[in-house]
Write a structure and sequence with these properties.
The chain is of the alpha/beta class. It contains 12 helices and 6 strands.
RNA sequence: AGGCCCGUGGUGAAAUGGUAUCAUCGAGGUCUCCAAAACCUUUGUUUAUGGUUCGAAUCCAUACGGGCCUG
């Protein structure tokens, strides 16, 4: 049994609620693929509004002053998926972090195994873009000219590419062969935006600002966790609680959420889901269940290329 | 009603009479260790009608819209 159900979708599409229902129906266990819900204590802003009686794996893994990466996620998630499958249950991966999902769908890519070189990053970080371009061009002339217009101007991506090029490690892929069913939720932008705006108001009311103040007792704005939507926008307001700054912060937060939803949509489109459901229409529950059941019961032992 | 200001993309601003620019929103995209990150591309503008001028967002007139002051 190597079946794994994937539920993706931009923010505010109700992925978790659907996952909980499907977990009951198929006797599954939920695994989060969310790069922000891994932070402990960041609950309201990242939307950890999960039902208490349903356990969710891979949330609350680290403190806001620690950093985490896809490479780590990939290793932990693959291991966990296998464990759940051995227990005879269906792993249901739920999340909106496209890169995390992609690391499970395409595990054969090897560069994740090349570890970060913090000294190198420290040296390269302050350098201007054109120097980074020059360095990478010297290291790998052909690859440099194959870069697209977006990547060639992206310092982070250039630094990572230089790091890989200079690494002495031998790249090794993660071993994982799985049968995924990728269900993706979506909706028109205007529909998502109004849901987001409503949710923003609710999160403020449920005490987001108190959560931020509480976090700041132990952590700082420089910590990676606090550089997150729903938190970073309040930096200036927290240091100077002026009502006009609050309104500004909330507006920017809303726009950041809209922007996020759009980027998530483009990323998830690229992953070509097996089934995409528009949540602005009513959910076709019966046909959805039968579709998943069909996949779940189908045996791939012979006759398919895998 | 009179007087004085002001009208530039959806929003906020810039432009000695000389190619209307920038930010933001909006839209599309890139992607295998910051990914809720970082980066790229892009639609859209001088309130209207006249006038002066080789040339008007800019100067003038009128209308319309807004603000402030006075009654």
């Amino acid at each position: 049994m190597n079946k794994t159900l994937l539920i993706s979708g931009p923010t505010a599409t109700g992925k978790t609620a659907l996952a909980v229902k499907l977990a009951k129906h198929f006797s599954g266990e939920i695994i989060s693929a969310d790069s922000r819900q891994i932070y402990r204590g960041m609950d309201i802003g990242t939307g950890k509004d999960h039902p208490k009686n349903t356990p969710i794996h891979l949330i609350d893994l680290i403190n806001p002053d620690e950093s985490f990466s896809v490479a780590q996620y990939q290793v932990i998630a693959v291991k966990l998926i296998k464990e759940i499958q051995l227990r005879g249950k269906l792993p249901i991966v739920v999340g909106g972090t496209g890169q995390y999902l992609e690391s499970l769908i395409n595990p054969e890519v090897k560069t994740f195994s090349i570890r970060p070189n913090h000294l190198l990053r420290f040296i390269l970080n302050p350098l201007p873009l054109f120097i980074l371009q020059k360095v990478y061009r010297l290291l790998d002339h052909q690859a440099y000219f194959r870069l697209n217009n977006s990547d060639v101007q992206n310092p982070h991506r250039l630094i990572r590419k230089i790091e890989i090029k200079l690494s002495l490690q031998k790249p090794t892929p993660v071993n994982s062969k799985m049968d995924f069913f990728h269900l993706s939720l979506t909706a028109p932008n205007s529909y998502l935006y109004s849901r987001i705006d409503k949710r923003v108001g609710e999160r403020l009311k449920s005490g987001l600002l108190q959560e931020i103040s509480h976090l700041l007792e132990s952590f700082s704005w420089f910590d990676p966790g606090l550089n997150t939507l729903a938190y970073k926008e309040f930096k200036s307001y927290i240091s100077n609680p002026d009502p006009s700054l609050l309104k500004k912060a909330v507006d920017i937060w809303r726009f950041d959420e809209h922007h996020l939803a759009r980027r998530q949509k483009t990323y998830l489109k690229r992953l070509s889901p097996d089934l995409t459901i528009d949540i602005s229409h009513s959910l076709p529950w019966v046909s959805l269940i039968s579709r998943i059941t069909k996949w779940y019961n189908h045996n791939y032992e012979y006759g398919t290329s895998g």
